[in-house]
Write the structure tokens for this entry.
Amino acid sequence: PDLCIAKRLWKSVAPPKVQFFGWLAWRGRVKTAEFIHRIGVLDDQVSIMCAFCSNAVESVSDVLLHCPRVWRVWSALVSWWDMCWVVPCAVKDLFQWWVGVKLKKMERKIWDLVPFVMLWSVWKLRNEKVFSGRPPNFVELVDLVKSRIAFWAYSNIVGMQYSVQDIVINLHQVR
């Protein structure tokens, strides 16, 4: 299963830096507050709690999946595809479930973008909060993720017949 997931990670039409971030998240190697505290970069005065909810230590799984605010965005994206899910334990489990979904070829290419775009977008939002103090807007995040998926699909999938607007607004017809 890991080899199948690794192949899919690198075959995505997401930009290379986003693929690389997806790979880091899949391997559990994202530099969260928990990690940088553990290696001694952050002292005990600095909070290592989730930047979004402050309810749990900021681990890879927490900030990218389990934070209640992030989980709601994931749920909105999964329901955008008319699917149901249970939040996975780790990013590795997320990718395993994601590659197991059966879809047609064109749908598959768009579907494969979703976890990359979501992980990337959440991490960027987290960094804006941590480094610039910008309050996160999760309603905007849902729209941003859908738009990025549509733009990257439209720009990078050979033979894409649908506009960015079709993908964002009329995904049911695209599917």
Notes: The chain is about 65% helix and 0% strand. The chain has a mean pLDDT of 91.
